[in-house]
Write a structure and sequence with these properties.
467 residues, alpha/beta, eight-stranded parallel β-barrel, three-stranded antiparallel β-sheet, 13 strands, FMN, Dihydroorotate_DH_2, oxidoreductase, DHO_dehydrogenase
C-alpha cells in the first residue's frame, strides 16, 4: 500500500509523443550544426561589440553626442524657470539642469564609468602650451572657473574630463551656509551662447566644504599608505591631488556681513582661509560678484588692500607645507583707468599673487541680441532680468582689461583671463595680451564636456602654425 501511495505522490510526467521527440532532436541537431554555431557566435560578438562601442563612445568627451545630443536634450527637458508650478512657475529649468549634470558626472565617476577624453592628447607636448605657475608645472593654461562646482562635490569627476584642465576653481564658499537669492536666478540666452545668473553666493558654508575636501585627502592618504598630514606636507602632491594640476577655492563674505564693516568682512574671509586654505593650492578672493549687494565696493583701494593683506597673512599660516597662493577676482565693470590703477596698487601693496580678470558683467552688450534668431523670451531676459552676464560678448572687455592689468602689474602678479573665452583662438589672444591662465565655464555649458579638449586642440594648431 505504501509503495502505491509513494508512486501516486510522484509528479505526474507526461509522456512525450514521437513527434515531440523528433522535433526536439532536430532543434538540438540544428544548434550543433557548424553554420548555426557560427551565426550565433557572430550575433553574440556583434552584441558584445555594440555594447563596448556604446560604452567607449558615450563616455568619451570628444564624441559629438555630448555637444549635439546631450546639451540640447538637457535644455529641452529642463526648460522652465526653476520655480515650482504650484507656486506659479514653469518648473525645472537651467539651475536644475546644472544640478542634474553634476550628479550624473559624479554618479558615473563613482561607479567606475567616468566621462573622459580618450585617445591621444598630443596637445600636452606642444611647445608653448605648458605653464609654470606658483612653483608648479602645468601642461596647459586652461582652467574651469568657479560657479560650475559651487559646493566642492564634483572635483575628481571634473578633473577626469580632460587632461587639458589644469586648474579647477570651486565655490564661491562663504563662512556660514546661505541660500542665496530667490529663484529664478539662472537664465539662458542660447542664441548668443550666454548666461545671466544672480545666485547671490548660495553656499553650503565653509564647515561642510572643509569636510568634503578633507575626505578627499583622507581617501587619497589611505589609498597611498600615507597619513593625512603627510599628504598635506608633501612637496610633490598638490592640493588638487592630481599631478600637474591645481585646485583653487573661491571664498566670499556672507550676505549678512555689512560691507561697510571692514573688520567683520576681514573676519569672514579669514575664517574661510582657516577652514579651507590647507586644502587649496590657490585661494581666490571674490570681491566682484554683482549679485551680492555692496560687495563691489570692497574694490576701493584702501579697503581692498586691507582685506587682501589679511587674507595673505592668514594663508601664510595654513597647516600645509606649501601655502596656498592668494588671487583676487575683480569686476569687468570696474574698468576706468583709476579703477585699474587702484586695484593694481592694492594687489601690489598686499602681496597678492595674481588677479582674475574678470567676473560677470551687469552690462548688456548689444551682441547678445544681434542675431535675427534671437527669441522674444531672450529679449525679455536681457532687458528685464538683473544679474551677471557671461558668454562670448564679454570677450572684448576681458581682453582689454587683461592687457591693462598686465601693463600695471608687470611680472609682480599673474593675470588670469576669465570671461567670454570659448575657443583656442580666444585663449591664445588672451595670452598674447598678458594672461598666463585662461579660464572658462559658459563655453562648456553650450559646447558640452568635450569643450576643454577641443580648445586645447585648437591652441595646438595655432601654436604650431596650422590654424
Amino acid at each position: 500500500m505504501s509503495l502505491c501511495l509513494a508512486r501516486l505522490a510522484r509528479p505526474l510526467r507526461l509522456a512525450r509523443s514521437p513527434v515531440q521527440r523528433r522535433l526536439e532532436s532536430t532543434a538540438a541537431a540544428n544548434l550543433r550544426r557548424p553554420a548555426n554555431k557560427l551565426r550565433n557566435g557572430l550575433i553574440g560578438s556583434v552584441a558584445a561589440g555594440s555594447v563596448a562601442f556604446a560604452y567607449y563612445y558615450l563616455t568619451d568627451t570628444r564624441s559629438a553626442f555630448h555637444k549635439y545630443q546631450v546639451v540640447p536634450l538637457m535644455r529641452w527637458i529642463y526648460n522652465g524657470d526653476d520655480v515650482p508650478r504650484a507656486q506659479g512657475g514653469r518648473g525645472d529649468g537651467a539651475e536644475k539642469a546644472h544640478e542634474i549634470g553634476l550628479k550624473a558626472l559624479r554618479g558615473l565617476y563613482d561607479i567606475g564609468l567616468p566621462l573622459r577624453e580618450r585617445g591621444q592628447h598630443d596637445y600636452l607636448g606642444t611647445r608653448g602650451m605648458g605653464v609654470e605657475l606658483f612653483g608648479h608645472h602645468l601642461k596647459t593654461p586652461l582652467a574651469i572657473s568657479a560657479g560650475l562646482d559651487k559646493h566642492a562635490e564634483c572635483i575628481d569627476p571634473l578633473f577626469s574630463l580632460s587632461p587639458a584642465i589644469s586648474i579647477l576653481e570651486i565655490g564661491c564658499i562663504t563662512p556660514r551656509p546661505q541660500v542665496g537669492n530667490p529663484k529664478p536666478r539662472m537664465f539662458r540666452l542660447p542664441t548668443s551662447d550666454s548666461l545671466i545668473n544672480r545666485y547671490g553666493f548660495n553656499s553650503i558654508g565653509a564647515d561642510v566644504a572643509a569636510i568634503r575636501l578633507r575626505d578627499r585627502v583622507r581617501r587619497y592618504a589611505h589609498k597611498h599608505g600615507m597619513s593625512e598630514q603627510e599628504v598635506l606636507d608633501s612637496e610633490h602632491i598638490p592640493a588638487s591631488l592630481w599631478e600637474n594640476r591645481l585646485l583653487a577655492v573661491q571664498i566670499g563674505k556672507n550676505g549678512s556681513t555689512s560691507e561697510t564693516d571692514i573688520e567683520a568682512v576681514k573676519r569672514d574671509y579669514i575664517e574661510c582661509v582657516q577652514k579651507l586654505g590647507r586644502f587649496a593650492d590657490i585661494v581666490v578672493v571674490n570681491v566682484s560678484s554683482p549679485n551680492s549687494p555692496g560687495l563691489r565696493s570692497l574694490q576701493k583701494r584702501e579697503s581692498l588692500q586691507q582685506l587682501l593683506s589679511a587674507v595673505v597673512e592668514a594663508a601664510g599660516k595654513t597647516e600645509r607645507r606649501r601655502k596656498p597662493k592668494v588671487v583676487v577676482k575683480v569686476s569687468p565693470d570696474s574698468d576706468s583707468p583709476d579703477d585699474v590703477r587702484d586695484i593694481s596698487a592694492a594687489i601690489l601693496g598686499s602681496g597678492v599673487a595674481g588677479v582674475i580678470v574678470a567676473n560677470t558683467t551687469v552690462k548688456r552688450p548689444s551682441q547678445i541680441l544681434a542675431s535675427p534668431q534671437t527669441t522674444e523670451e531672450e529679449k525679455r531676459i536681457a532687458n528685464k532680468e538683473f544679474g551677471g552676464l557671461s558668454g562670448p560678448a564679454l570677450l572684448p572687455k576681458t581682453l582689454q582689461l587683461v592687457e591693462r592689468f598686465s601693463r600695471e602689474l608687470g611680472d609682480k602678479a599673474v593675470v588670469f583671463a576669465s570671461g567670454g573665452i570659448t575657443s583656442g583662438h580666444d585663449a591664445e589672444e588672451a595670452r598674447k595680451r598678458g594672461a598666463k591662465i585662461v579660464m572658462g565655464y559658459t563655453g562648456m555649458v553650450y559646447s558640452g564636456v568635450g569643450f576643454w579638449g577641443r580648445m586645447a586642440g585648437e591652441m595646438k594648431g595655432i601654436l604650431e602654425g596650422h590654424a
